[in-house]
């Protein structure tokens, strides 16, 4: 029984003069905001999101709302992760430099162990330099 209803529903929509849009309404202005260096949507960050909605009449700030606390924790976690990854990259670069220096020292050591020219060859080298 369910198949005829589905077919009927699809056929009614197909022949209907009404058009349905499947795009997301949140994308309004997204391109403009990206071009001007702003967030994709107006609710990601900014004064409307980060500042409190109200304050006390005597000027005291309102207690932070749940969303503000959550966003603050997410940002702190992201900053910790960035610092950790940055330190990992720094350690990796330092290790790479040390390996390069060690390889250079080994190459110089190998060259120093090679046989030295003697006799006429040594005299030739001295006269050329």
Automatic annotation (TrEMBL):
Protein origin, superkingdom: Eukaryota
Coiled coil: none
Main location: mitochondrion
Keywords noted in UniProt: Mitochondrion, Ribonucleoprotein, Ribosomal protein, Transit peptide
Compositionally skewed regions (Basic residues) per UniProt: 117-129
Residues covered by region (Disordered): 35-76, 97-129
Cellular component GO terms held in the UniProt record: mitochondrial large ribosomal subunit
Subcellular location field: Mitochondrion
GO molecular function ontology, one term from the record: structural constituent of ribosome
Pfam families: MRPL52
Feature: compositional bias, Basic and acidic residues: 97-111
GO terms, biological process: mitochondrial translation
Family membership noted in the UniProt record: Belongs to the mitochondrion-specific ribosomal protein mL52 family.
Protein name, as recorded: Large ribosomal subunit protein mL52
């Amino acid at each position: 029984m369910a198949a005829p209803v589905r077919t009927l529903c699809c056929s009614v929509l197909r022949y209907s003069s009404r058009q349905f849009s499947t795009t997301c309404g949140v994308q309004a202005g997204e391109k403009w905001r990206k071009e001007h260096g702003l967030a994709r949507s107006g609710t990601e960050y900014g004064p409307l999101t980060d500042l409190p909605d109200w304050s006390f009449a005597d000027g005291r700030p309102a207690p932070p709302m749940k969303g503000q606390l959550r966003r603050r924790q997410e940002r702190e976690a992201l900053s910790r992760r960035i610092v950790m990854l940055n330190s990992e990259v720094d350690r990796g670069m330092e290790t790479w430099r040390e390996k390069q220096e060690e390889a250079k020292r080994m190459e110089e050591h190998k060259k120093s162990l090679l046989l030295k020219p003697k006799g006429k060859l040594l005299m030739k080298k001295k006269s050329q330099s």
